[in-house]
Design brief:
The complex is a heterodimer of chains A (about 120) and B (about 120).
Chain A (H helix, E strand, L loop, with lengths): L3 E4 L2 E4 L5 E7 L5 E7 L5 E9 L2 E4 L6 E3 L9 E3 L8 E8 L11 E2 L3 E5 L1
Chain B lengths: L2 E3 L4 E5 L4 E3 L2 E3 L5 E8 L6 E7 L6 E3 L2 E6 L4 E6 L8 E9 L8 E2 L3 E6 L1
Parallel strand pairs in B: 2-12
Antiparallel strand pairs in B: 1-4, 3-9, 5-6, 5-10, 7-8, 8-9, 10-11, 10-12
The chains are: A mainly beta (about 120), B mainly beta (about 120).
């Protein structure tokens, strides 16, 4: 299994440009997440999905959009990029698990995005 | 409100010293889960341990040990006989068991530097 893969690894955007960060997992996990990590900070949840066709906002959703048309893929869309979106973006997934359990999340390698 | 505090921003030790990373959490839930993740210089996040709120037994895994104390809302992580390879950012995270979303709240992280 490749686990959680993210593309691209690095990207530089100009202010106002748009892009899509790709995330794919091959573990048949129901749950998927997008986080951003700013320097010296922990991870903040942007959006999450509990299954194909179901997405919801996390703590910092403004300026982003997501879709979940398949179990495997959970792309993150940035519209009108701003310098405040300069960050490292992590995608994660986890298995559904039995009722009452709370399994760990598996993370992708991250995408380092700079908006100039 | 749910919150995780890692008050130690950076810790520097010399190889073979023992080091403890503190984690204090806040939650109103009676069922919750705590996690530790390691982020080495390469950038990926590696799962270390999960603990649920009903299991206060301490855990040891090789040179790693975890001390969970509900009375003080703490879930501290100790590395015995530290090694250079332990140099990383360590994150503590909280998941509330009443939610079926699997969302995690991360602390700010503690950067551990182990010098040879």
């Amino acid at each position: 299994n490749a686990g959680v893969t993210q593309t691209p690894k690095f990207r530089i955007l100009k202010i106002g440009q748009s892009m899509t960060l790709q995330c794919t997992q091959d573990m048949n996990h129901n749950y998927m997440y997008w986080y951003r990590q700013d320097p010296g900070m922990g991870l903040k949840l942007i959006y999450y999905s509990v299954g194909a066709g179901i997405t919801d906002k996390g703590e910092v959703p403004n300026g982003y959009n997501v879709s979940r048309s398949t179990t495997e893929d959970f792309p993150l869309r940035l519209e009108l990029a701003a310098p405040s979106q300069t960050s490292v973006y992590f995608c994660a997934s986890k298995v559904l698990g039995k009722a009452g359990s709370y399994n760990e999340q598996f993370f992708g390698p991250g995408t380092r995005l700079t908006v100039l | 409100a749910q919150k995780v505090t890692q008050a130690q921003t950076e810790i520097s030790v010399v190889e073979k010293e023992d080091v403890t990373l503190d984690c204090v959490y806040e939650t109103r839930d009676t069922t919750y889960y705590l996690f530790w993740y390691k982020q080495p210089p390469s950038g990926e996040l590696v799962f270390l341990i999960r603990r649920n709120s009903f299991d206060e037994q301490n855990e040891i895994s090789g040179r790693y040990s975890w001390n969970f104390q509900k009375s003080t809302s703490s879930f501290n992580f100790t590395i015995t006989a530290s090694q250079v390879v332990d140099s990383a950012v360590y994150f503590c995270a909280l998941g509330h068991g009443s939610s079926n979303t699997g969302k995690l709240i991360f602390g700010q992280g503690t950067t551990l530097q182990v010098k040879p």
